[in-house]
């Protein structure tokens, strides 16, 4: 059976199944389990209404529980076992991880990524948002800077290969070097330490648009009076921006910053496509993929390290959300 | 606010220029990919894409004819080097002006065009800029012409050859269909499931609602790396294995926290009056959801489906883990990252084209639905 047909059938079964599930489960609840008639009509209606939310929630909670909650436990348990799933090693995987120099490199690199990429994307995004704010062609400019958001990390990596290529006739950087009179092309992907920064540029290129769109909306939301008052008091454009506007959108800046931070901890595609983790560019997600399919114990241990790094952001997110609901 | 005090026209110019600069900086890499995908392989390796509109100097080789005319005691062979099929094959866009020529592969551009030179054994050769040559040799050349290397201007040559190759050969067409097969169900199914859950979390009263919302917010940031090993093992043990069914489930689940979160936020913002008056009129929750809340939530549904579509289309990690690694089920990102970059590392034309094919659909979706996307982003993160 052609795969596309299989896909179409799945859509039908999936969509039909979902609609059928919700419709039928409601019907059964109202008609048969707690029918809204007979002597217990009042009690039945109340009971049906107490059950119904769980009918609505069940499919979502089921997949969430199975694919996101269970793995937190499942991964941790698996990480206590060695390559062989029956051989219990306790914290052995973690101990050997922390002792390995590859892990230390990827942890350090990941640290650099988490510091630099969100900072740079948010900063450039904020600058672009401010600059385009009252520009006649601002929307066009924003749309073009936003565009890389739609491009896959693999596609973006390929695009940047045409910038970084080790050949003055293909790579833009080497072409510029050749124009400045340098003799031999260099492979920027092999310069220790700096190659990490060149890889980060790709993600910054992708994420700046996201930061810009959100910050631009936040800038528009600043009450006009505060700005007018500052101008009347003689604030120059710099003061206006840094002392009046930025403090008022600080909350949004923090949201953008954390969102990009979380993303950085998940992205393995760029390193995988550009260097394959060679030349000292490994980061945790790509390091994990080195062990995937080969040593599940190690792979889950690395995944759990990522989870622990993310944990503070998660707690902070939940606290913010609860504060808002009250 | 254009003319308020404090905005100077010189500053305005600086703004225009710096935005222009940034936009160019952002666009140039993509333009490079786009231009390269239409260039001929030989041209890509000879000159950068930024020189694409200009002629390229290519070195080629050919052989002269061998039908000699005797002139005294020398044999004279004349003709045009572009008449030789081998020489012509280097210039699919037509041969340009010849700059230099030579007789050995080591020095293909030894002599400037138009100059008569000794090439040993008393032979002389001249190749003119238009390709005509005259070869004088004291001995009968028999049926073998003289080898000629030459450097010529090759006019810019834009072809769709790369696209033909990518879309018909290399299994890329298959990968395109596979990507679609993964993407469409993985976009549609989570929306439906999430919409019901979001409605329950926004408008139904039950104990534990607050906790569930907090759980969803928490799950938003769980790294999906955690799920890879346990879920693949589970898939294997229940018989799904690495398959399309498995990846549909996986994408549905990984998109679920964002879907529920976005939709709940949006639905909770719908006017309370409408919902309550419908309830007073006797609408059940099911009818209320289907007839009122769902239609009103269309912008949020659109926003999420764009996200989910872009995310599943562009995904590499989930596809690498949950799909088998044979050609029959590779998606485009895997195909490019694993096959093309590995075996065709040097074929830049094919690489550029494959990348462009894979980003074309998301770009179309992006530019046509940008409004919804922006709205969705804002609903998710600006309070």
TrEMBL record, chain A:
Give TM segment ranges: 6-29, 50-70, 111-132, 144-163, 197-219, 249-268, 299-318
Biological process annotations from GO = transmembrane transport
Spell out the subcellular localization from the entry: Cell membrane
Does Cell membrane appear among the keywords?
yes
Membrane topology note: Multi-pass membrane protein
Q: Which InterPro entries match?
A: MetI-like (IPR000515), MetI-like_sf (IPR035906), UgpAE/MalFG_permease (IPR050809)
Q: Per the record's keyword annotation, is Membrane included, yes or no?
A: yes
Q: Name one Pfam family in it.
A: BPD_transp_1
Q: Which Gene3D superfamilies does the protein's record reference?
A: MetI-like (1.10.3720.10)
Keywords assigned by UniProt, alphabetized: Cell membrane, Membrane, Transmembrane, Transmembrane helix, Transport
Chain ranges of the ABC transmembrane type-1 domain: 107-317
Q: Tell me the CDD domains matching this sequence.
A: TM_PBP2 (cd06261)
A Gene Ontology CC term for this entry? plasma membrane
Q: What is its main location?
A: membrane
Hey, which family's this protein in?
Belongs to the binding-protein-dependent transport system permease family.
| This protein's name | Lactose transport system permease protein LacF
Automatic annotation (TrEMBL), chain B:
Belongs to which family?
A: Belongs to the binding-protein-dependent transport system permease family.
BP GO annotations? transmembrane transport
Q: Which UniProt key words apply to this protein? A: Cell membrane, Membrane, Transmembrane, Transmembrane helix, Transport
Record's superkingdom? Bacteria
Q: Name one GO cellular component term.
A: plasma membrane
Q: Which InterPro entries match?
A: MetI-like, MetI-like_sf
Q: Which residues cross the membrane?
A: 12-35, 182-204, 211-232, 244-267, 288-311, 348-367
The subcellular location is: Cell membrane
Q: Where is the ABC transmembrane type-1 domain?
A: 176-369
Protein name, entry field: L-arabinose transport system permease protein AraQ
> To which species is this protein native?
Palleronia abyssalis
What is its membrane topology? Multi-pass membrane protein
Q: Which Gene3D superfamilies does this one have?
A: MetI-like (1.10.3720.10)
